[in-house]
Amino acid sequence: MMEKMIIGRYVPADSILHRMDPRSKLIIVFLFVCVIFLANNIWTYGILVLYTFLMASFSKIQARFLIGGLKPVLWLVLFTFFLHLFLTKEGAIILDLGWFKVYEEGLRQGIFISLRFFLLILITSLLTLTTTPIEITDGLERLLGPLKKVKFPVHELALMMSIALRFIPTLMQETDKIIKAQTARGVEYTSGPIKDRLKAVVPLLIPLFISSFKRAEELAVAMEARGYKGGEGRTKYRQLSWAVADTLMIVGLLFVTILLLVFRG
Amino acid sequence: MNSPLVVLNDVSFQYESQETPALNHISMEVYEGEWLAIVGHNGSGKSTLARLLNGLQFPKEGTINVAGITLSEDSIWEIRKQIGMVFQNPDNQFVGTTVQDDVAFGLENNGVSVEIMSDRVVDALKKVNMDSFLDQEPHHLSGGQKQRVAIAGVLALRPSIIILDEATSMLDPRGRGEVIETIMNLQKEEKITVISITHDLEEASKANRIIVMNQGEIYREGTPEEIFEMDEELVKLGLDIPFSVKISKKLREKGISLDRHYLTEEELVAELWTSHSKM
């Protein structure tokens, strides 16, 4: 189950978004996060909502996957909405309950800010739903490539990320095994007072840490034996290919940005 | 056999934390195209020997020569291209997120161009019969499959020698069978020199030659038949004799004459069911 939460997010399908270069997707998400702050009235928010839904329809991903990804942050969105509703005291009063008044500006702010939140989460989930973690890693490595000139360890960072991704399921399986082994020895993970349950985590984490260090050591030896000597002179098996569609997608977002600049109040 | 591919000359090695040397004045040769099994119980120095051959450790005394190159700090990368190594734990040597990424890892390290790389990845996976698993992730593979991918990763680099450091010891019998069969094919068809480090005499019985190690020294060297003649002596060294060898020994004690020690169950069974007609 935990496995599904972390890396099972990718939904394989054959869509424009799936075929896009991870670099262009990353750039688009980054740009989107910036331009979303340009929206400040109903027209500009309308454009962004339209854009996001257009993207979602491009992805060919079923709505239930998209909504599934939103669930854990739904509380945060609602919280933001009510916070603005209660705390903004501007404009005309539209609801007066005596002890609590809802102002027009409060309602407007609440809707806009939570909508902004909602769109951001939707766009980033579209990225992770249509791109495998390793593609994202590759894309980041290439995008950050220029930083090598200032001695930023781009290659090492990307390798660390990809090894971490590769070992998540392995460590999950191991955690499962240790839980079973400790349960057989009388440790309770699912019942009893919170304090005891927290204590029970210790005999789970210690063996997990020890074995992780052992794995790391063996992996380092195996990598060295296979000729790994750092990023220099290394070639990449996975090639990224930038297609016309990638350029068009970015141009599309730039066009949306211009529209936002024109229509914002 | 052919000319020696690996020559060890009076090699000694000692771990800093230990009082006795792990290897004590070892001299040996590995010939081109042979399958050499190095057997011994835990702590006999057999794994240390494998690590020395690949330059993961350096000998305290003596020299190691691989394919004409003398091992030193400067030549380890050249030597690692000649020697591929498969380790014990199938999980802890799987670097890539998918089968093909893992096989490509060694090629990437050596700066092989992309066009050549994709051919070699598929080619190597075909040789170990894993070519239908290209995009599979490691946690969906069995231990035996992971070890075969590890072998493919080594093969992709076109080495002349493969060292298997206890590569089958963590596998179930089926996985072990798969890996041993793969190795047998490679030795026959690709003419690759195989050095297998193991404490499983069943596996060692498939080799051309066996070296028995004990307390950092070479105890005995010979063909599997010769080594299994040692019998009780092997048990004293902490090694377990294969089932078929035990049976043929017991049969002989009962007065049933067999031609020789039978190394595999098939050989023994064939001898037994035809023995009546020979009498």
From TrEMBL, chain A:
Instruction: Return the InterPro entries for the record.
Output: ABC/ECF_trnsptr_transmembrane, EcfT
Q: Does the keyword Transport apply?
A: yes
Q: Does the keyword Cell membrane apply?
A: yes
> Which Pfam families does the record match to this protein?
CbiQ (PF02361)
Q: What keywords sit in the KW lines?
A: Cell membrane, Membrane, Transmembrane, Transmembrane helix, Transport
Membrane topology is:
Multi-pass membrane protein
Subcellular localization, as worded in the UniProt entry: Cell membrane
Q: Where are the transmembrane segments?
A: 26-53, 73-99, 111-132, 242-263
User: Function, please?
Assistant: Transmembrane (T) component of an energy-coupling factor (ECF) ABC-transporter complex. Unlike classic ABC transporters this ECF transporter provides the energy necessary to transport a number of different substrates.
Q: Its family?
A: Belongs to the energy-coupling factor EcfT family.
Subunit organization: Forms a stable energy-coupling factor (ECF) transporter complex composed of 2 membrane-embedded substrate-binding proteins (S component), 2 ATP-binding proteins (A component) and 2 transmembrane proteins (T component).
Kindly provide the name given to this protein in its UniProt entry.
Energy-coupling factor transporter transmembrane protein EcfT
Organism, per UniProt? Mesobacillus maritimus
Automatic annotation (TrEMBL), chain B:
Stated membrane topology is:
Peripheral membrane protein
Instruction: Specify whether DNA repair is a keyword of the entry.
Output: no
* Predominant place of localization: membrane
Q: Which residues form the ABC transporter domain?
A: 6-240
InterPro entries, per the entry:
AAA+_ATPase, ABC_transporter-like_ATP-bd, ABC_transporter-like_CS, ABC_transpr_CbiO/EcfA_su, ECF_ABC_transporter_ATP-bd, EcfA_1, P-loop_NTPase
Give a yes or no for keyword Transmembrane helix in this entry: no
Top-rank taxon of the source lineage equals: Bacteria
Location of this chain's protein in the cell = Cell membrane
* Pfam families on file: ABC_tran
MF-aspect GO terms: ATP binding
Member of which family? Belongs to the ABC transporter superfamily.
Q: Which UniProt keywords apply?
A: ATP-binding, Cell membrane, Membrane, Nucleotide-binding, Translocase, Transport
- According to UniProt, the name of this protein is Energy-coupling factor ABC transporter ATP-binding protein
